[in-house]
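re the bet — no i am not wrong, look at it urself. input seq straight from the record:
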Amino acid sequence: MSNASDSGLILIDKPEGMTSRQVDNAIQKIFHTRKVGHLGTLDPFATGLLIVAVNKGTKVLPFLQDEEKTYIATLRLGQGSSTGDKDGELFPLEDKQAFTKAEIEAVLPSFLGESTQIPPMTSAIKVDGTALYKLAHQGKEIEREPRKIRIDALNFLSLKGNDLTFITTVSKGTYIRVLGEDIAKALGSKGHLIALRRVKIGDVSVDDAIPLEKANKTSLLDPAPFLSRYRTHVCSIKEEKGVRNGSALTLPYGEEEILALSSAHEALAILVKKPNGDYSVARGLF
């Protein structure tokens, strides 16, 4: 549902060669605002779904961060790189140059479920206020803490020569570059991603996204449907007035700790349950 105001979300199909920040910058120019952000950074070589928030839409992003993400990736087996993808320095070819579908399908299930993953030095994670990739560009490498991740699905799609294409659904914070390297390692080799495309974030599909050059004010979407993981309370005019004035609401939702609040026309707020059972505004969207 389009939002007639200058606030909301835009689904962009990010092209290869652009950083996610460059997409934000382009949207800033279209809407003449600095209040633009995105959900889940994509590397420059990656393409696919980027949820971009404009103005008040940026208030929704923290509540979408935990959505699982689905990617289609192509892993070139037999050759690693300094970054785990094709933008890095390529290493010499491995001796092993032949892989089979059966061999690959035998190792993929071992990655399913919860595990830990060490973020790459080329990630945007900050250590003492400095992004790891900036340290990497200075030739530095520091110890990184393993992070908990979850892989819900990992399936073989095709094998052309040494190029393995797979589809995977993962938790927040999972690096597909590292997953690719680990798959290659399990096959007794090295590898690097030559293509990566994000096709879903939660229930949102890249099929509903638009090219960056087609983005305009009519592309803005109401954030309400994106909050479907939370139970939604559609408020009365009286309740809306109270919320806008800072009042808490007494609502019959039992153990629900977080609620999405909307009027008949738009998303209004994220509510959190207080110790006394009432719900107060954690993040206003108005």
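see?? DSSP finds five helices and 16 strands in the chain. told u. also The two ends are 17 Å apart (CA to CA). so pay up
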